[in-house]
């Protein structure tokens, strides 16, 4: 019998590796435009899952788990200001997808 939870956890770890180490150049706004979620969304989902499991976790703790470092550190190292084009594309994506 396959342990689905273990496979899902491995896939989640691989996603974090990809986003934070292999492709930190991909900005959260670009993820939001194309996929409708970003690293912060993953952190929110992680925190919600912790809460459902009875584990106290705040927003910063969840973000540190997802980013692999304090969010402020990741932001200073990797996040750029959104361009006018990105902001326009984000607005259009929000309008399309409600």
Any overview of this molecule?
This is Deoxycytidine triphosphate deaminase. Residues 26-91 form the SMc04008-like domain. It holds the Pfam family DUF1244. The protein is mostly helical and 98 residues long. The chain has one domain (4-97): SMc04008-like (SMc04008-like fold), CATH 1.10.3340.10. It contains 6 helices and no strands. The chain has helices spanning 4-22, 28-35, 39-52, 59-67, 71-78, 84-97. Helix 2 runs parallel beside helix 6. The longest helix is centred in the N-terminal third of the chain and has 19 residues, at 4-22. The protein is globular. The relative contact order is 0.13. The model has no long low-confidence stretch (mean pLDDT 94).
